[in-house]
Design a protein that fits this description.
Layout lengths: L3 E2 L5 E2 L3 E8 L6 H11 L4 E7 L2 E6 L2 H10 L3 E12 L5 H11 L4 E7 L6 E7 L2 H17 L5
Length: 150
Amino acid sequence: MQTTKTSPTTATTPLTTTFVQVKLEDRPGELGRCARVIADAKINLEGFNCGPGGVHLLLGNPTQALDVLRKNEFEADQVELFALRLPNQPGQLARIGEELGRAEVNVEACFGVAGARENGRIFVRCDNIERARPVIEHLASVQTTGNPNV
């Protein structure tokens, strides 16, 4: 299987990336404390999603981040997600959800970022990476070629 380096320390397939999932206590200041640990270690924060119970971090060096977070008593793990760059236009999330659903793949988490003039990025965590992979590869090839029959 071909791999692509997305950070100095984490190899992933071309359509996946590694996030660091951090469990946060439900009290004031926890997000700030977590972010300070990352900042003080001079690890670039490239994206994040925060919700009940924790935060998912897209980082320049997820392995180093995992180490410093654990040393600072945070419960943290690495999580593999699919990462797609798609045009910023209506229906992209619907298409992803429908195609994964037809393949009997459950979406466990999903979030996206869209720019006004550029492709958006959608990150998807699935219950079955191997079953989801051909669907994601197809969606990515449609984006690259413009042909939905690829």
